[in-house]
Amino acid sequence: MSGPPDAERPALAATGDRAEANPRTGPALTTRRASVLAELRRLGGFASVQQLHAALQARGVRVGLSTVYRTLAAAETEELVEAVRGTARLYRYQPPHHVHHLRCTVCGGSVPFVSPVLEEWIEGLGPRYGFVHVRHGVSATGVCPECVGDG
Q: How many whole angstroms separate alpha carbon 117 and alpha carbon 130?
């Protein structure tokens, strides 16, 4: 199950509560850092570091302001959050954009598609079974309209 990190989007390394930064995979995803990202996602829109920190504190999550800053900086690098600069820097959770392809088994042509329903369902699998950094690939095949017409 282990292997090299995803080259396109290096994952925050999850190694438990005593996580350390890995030079190959970047900052460690500790329980506190995971809480920061989960809270930002729960908030749904843009939030400042201070607003996010206050929301965490209100929910009883003990995390330092510097941890919130570091987590958001790392997540921005990995394109897990979107940052907007104005009078204050605001962040919002940005789910990964993932495109699948429907491939023709006759000619090999393909059509890209995005399925928010599929992505949401797969996103829920990890927490349901205690997994983190869940990646997936979907293989969808069929016969395209041009090849159906030829047959």
A: 21
- Torsion sign over Cα 16, 29, 133, 13: negative
pLDDT of the chain, 151 residues: tens digit per residue: 333 333 333 333 332 333 334 343 345 567 888 899 999 989 988 999 999 999 999 999 999 999 999 999 988 888 788 888 878 889 988 876 667 888 999 998 888 887 878 888 888 888 889 888 777 877 799 999 999 987 6
User: 């890209």: which residue's tokens?
Assistant: 112
Q: Which amino acid is at 132?
A: V
DSSP E strands, the chain: 47-48, 81-84, 90-93, 100-104, 110-113, 140-142
Rounded Cα distance, 101 and 11, in Å: 23
> For 96, left (φ over 0), alpha (ψ -120 to 50), or beta?
beta
Using an 8 Å Cβ cutoff, are 32 and 61 in contact?
Answer: yes
